[in-house]
Amino acid sequence: MRIAVFGTGGVGGYFGGRLAQIGQDVTFIARNKSLDAMRERGLRVDSIAGDFTLPRVEVTDDPRKVGVVDYVLCCVKAGQVAAAARAMLPMVGPETLVVPLQNGIEAPARLGETLDPANVLGGLCGIVSFLAAPGHIKHTGASPLIRFGHLDNRPDPRVNSLAEIFNHCSGVKASIPEDINVAMWQKFMLVTPWSGLGAVSRAPIGALLAQHETREMLLEAVEEVDQLARAMGISLPANSVEKTIRTLESMPPNSTTSMQRDIVKGRPSELDVLNGTVVRLAEEHGLDARVNRFCLYCMRSLELRARGALKFNRRSTPR
Fold first, then answer.
1. Inside any domain, residue 311
2. Which residue range(s) make up the domain with 186?
3. Contact (Cβ atoms closer than 8 angstroms) between residue 127 and residue 137
4. Do 201 and 174 share a structural domain?
5. Residue 172: inside a domain
6. Is position 318 within any domain?
7. Angle, to 10 degrees, between the axis of helix 212-231 and the axis of helix 290-306?
8. Which stretches of the chain are DSSP H helices?
9. pLDDT in tens, 133-164
């Protein structure tokens, strides 16, 4: 199978690296310093599931040089999905399946605006990993999992084949959910409140859960996403809120989300596609999402600054 990995951050670098490690025909689409580093030194992954290094990898910044592949893993940030869809067109043929793995719930729809929706799956992954340096990935928490499937949940041998390939990778657990939409909302319910409150407080998940006040806010934010999903016709299990909190409790206490790390470092983040999406959809369905709205409003000025739309000094000057 020919597999293209579009984006080589913590997600694309890790899962693409595991695929290449078992001998799959993987081409990474990278740019700038990551492209240069991977061309010169390959890919290094430090992982709690076992470190490995690939001295040589196939990497390019031009999807036109890759040609049509069997699968594309779309691993860019949610705000970059539309641009990625346009760029990956030369790699997508009639039988190609595109698997979005970013946070949020609207990536399949964004991909489907450019690509044939028949080529686009729903997808998600679970891992705490990040780009430590160009060409160097660190996996520091969570047992890596990946889930995907057609949005109408129809069976497809191509989907089964990809799951089988992933399940041959060391430490990776792949599955095809009975309902991929439910699975995506469950992930959304986990990462969105954590990202928002983590960004506001600058605290890791262990500290958020240990303090009574932030724990209550986290619970309320999770409940807001649960109520929204049900209003939109998503058949979440009755215990989804409790299960989400238990999953957060199982995370390494020092874990943070990619959105939280981006905001702390002054980079553009997924604020709009996480907490912003909850607020927007809640308003459309006549629901109140006060904790998610609080996170959105508190972080909005920093997000605008990171995107160059607002200028101010991050540190005030004492007089």
1. no
2. 182-306
3. no
4. no
5. yes
6. no
7. 100
8. 10-21, 32-41, 81-87, 107-112, 157-166, 180-201, 205-210, 212-231, 240-250, 258-264, 275-284, 290-306
9. 999 999 998 899 999 999 999 999 999 999 99
The 8-class DSSP code of residue 309 comes to: S
Q: What is the pLDDT of residue 24?
A: 98
211, with CB counted inside 10 A (0-12, 13-18, 19+), is middle
- Reduced to 3 states, what is the DSSP secondary structure of residue 4? strand
Which CA distances in Å does 19 have to 15, 93, 209?
6, 21, 35
Q: Who contacts 16 (Cβ-Cβ below 8 Å, separation ≥6)?
A: 3, 5, 8, 26, 28, 43, 73, 75
CB-based burial label for 304 (10 Å; 0-12, 13-18, 19+): middle
Structure tokens at 12: 């694309």
Residues 168, 165: Cα–Cα separation, whole Å? 5
Q: pLDDT category, 316, cuts 50, 70, 90?
A: low
Within a domain: 127: yes
How far apart CA 262 and CA 208 sit, in angstroms, is: 18
Mean pLDDT of the chain: 95
**Same domain, yes or no: 82 and 206:** no
DSSP letters of 24-37?
Answer: -EEEEE--HHHHHH
186 and 157 in a single domain? The answer is no
pTM, to two decimals: 0.92
Assess whether pLDDT exceeds 60 at residue 311.
yes
Q: How far is CA 216 from the centre of its chain?
A: 25
Gap between the Cα atoms of 175 and 182, Å rounded: 14
